[in-house]
Amino acid sequence: MTNISASEIKITSSDNLAFRIFQWLFVIFLIYLLITAVGMIGSGFKGATKGHATDLFAFATNPFMGLVIGVIATAMIQSSSTVTSIIVGLVAGGLPVEMAVPMVMGANIGTTITNTIVSLGHINRKKEFRRAFAAATVHDFFNLMAVVIFLPIEIIFHPLQKIAGFLAEYFVGGENLSVKGLDFIKPITHPVISLFKDLSKMISEQAADILLVVFGIMIIFLTIIFIGKLLKKLMVGRAKEIMHSSIGRGPVSGIFSGTIITVLVQSSSTTTSLMVPLAGSGVFKLKQIYPFTLGANIGTTITALLAATAISGPSAILALQIALVHFIYNFSAVILIYGIKGLRKIPLNSALWLARLASERKTVALLYMLGVFFVIPGLLVFLYELTL
Amino acid sequence: MEHENFSSLPQKKLKKLIKETENMLEELKCELDKRKTHKQHEEIDHLEEYFEDADHNLTNLKKFIQRVINEIKK
Fold first, then answer.
1. Which of A140, A244, B46, B57 could, after both became Cys, cross-link A112 (CB 3.0–4.6 A)?
2. Closest partner residue to A118 among B39, B53, B63, by Cβ?
3. Does residue A279 fall inside a structural domain?
4. What is the tens place of the pLDDT at every residue in A271-327?
């Protein structure tokens, strides 16, 4: 009897292993599709705009408009990875990096809506809701503060664009570390891109390039959803191990753990949403949750970097540049805001204050969400237009 | 009352009492930290459920809006 059970267990575990291997192969296939889709957007956008991408995005020359596009697009589809990957594709297709930078910053704000919505699940228990809402909005306040500090500096001096440009040139165009010689992406993505180009032409010869962009966006959207779902299943054990080992080790370990977990699950929303119930139960203090959410900001930049590998040729530098802008921006924001004690406390205190208000009157929470993600961005554009 | 008792105590005894209390306080703090850490580890063991919960965004939003409407009606 015992022998039968043991053999059954063996069969089950080997089945599990085979299934896991299949899941991993599927993840690799999805990443391949993601990279291909970014290439499709780049190629389609270049063809559709015929070198006039700046004219097409003339409305986004106002950086606040770019910011609003990033905020609203990300808040609507609840995935900054999707939005930043699309932005990388658009930059490769001719969208100026200068216009794309505020969009990337906006995506950072937009993505915070997901964990705020997750915190609403605790609405029936007042204290729990207060803690959960504070854990969610500390991420919002941090990202808002980062934009308030970095966007004006970027508009005037373009430091992120310049540093990222220098690094991108070093990695892609430099003599020693040239990726040109190692361009294995184009040969493997080209057949699928060509297939979709032909399909688009079959549907409409005139709108083929626009259709290619639409196909690319749809594929990115779907692949990121499936990658997220699969990685959640595959990585939950590893995420647990990382979190167990980071307990009691201080904020730097928290930031590092948040980064690694986000890289593993390819979604900052997932990492920050996980923190909400941990804080809501009262077992984890807001101070402990805060560094994890900042790590999520850094970890999420891996997707855009991955997406940038899809682009080869002269646009490769620009694609990598915008992906690096995303990384440098998030990394610098953590160093600056979390590194300076006075600044570090602002998102914490703001989140606690708002959570106290929202737990008393739920309308405050609704007004806050509508305000931050939709009304204030709109007002900023309006004010900017007035000053011109 | 206690104060009076302390005032009658010799200095040596007082110092001994302080030391014992400090040690006890340290042990209590350690025990409290241990329990907190244990609870945190237990909470992390529920991570699968939290992963699931993260997918129920729309349900949360619907419940919340209903709650806000009720609050406004009141």
1. A140
2. B53
3. yes
4. 998 899 999 999 999 999 999 999 999 999 998 998 898 888 788 899 999 999 999
Chain A residues interacting with chain B (CB cutoff of 8 angstroms): 78, 114, 117-118, 120-121, 123, 232, 236, 239-240, 243-244, 247-248, 269-270, 273-274, 277-278, 281, 283-284, 361-363, 365-366
* Contact status, residue A161 vs residue A154, Cβ threshold 8 Å: yes
Query: Does A8 fall in a domain?
Result: no
Residue A12 lies in a domain: no
Which of A123, A232, A278 lies at the smallest CB-CB distance from B63?
A123
List Cβ neighbours of A67 (8 Å cut-off, separation of 6 or more). A102, A103, A105, A106, A109, A147, A151, A377, A380
Number of domains in chain A: 1
Largest CA distance in chain A: 83
For residue A276, give its domain range: 20-387
pLDDT, tens digit (0-9, with 9 covering 90-100), for A168-204: 998 887 544 344 445 667 788 889 999 998 999 988 8
Q: Torsion angle, CA of A377/A382/A386/A388, rounded to 10 degrees?
A: 60
Whether the Cβ atoms of residue A246 and residue A257 lie closer than 8 Å to each other: yes
B39 contact residues in A (CB cutoff 8 A): 283
ipTM: 0.77
Measured between alpha carbons, how far is A15 from A286 in angstroms, rounded to an integer?
41
Q: A363 and B39: CB-CB below 8 Å?
A: no
Cβ pair A143, A294 in contact under 8 A: no
Task: Give residue-wise pLDDT tens across range A215-248.
Answer: 999 999 999 889 988 998 888 889 889 999 988 8
For residue A160, give both structure tokens.
């992120």
Residue A245 Cα distances to A238, A239, A241, A256, A387, angstroms: 11, 10, 6, 11, 52
- Cβ within 8 Å of residue A374, ≥6 positions away: A72, A75
Residue A88 contacts residue A304 (beta carbons within 8 Å) = yes
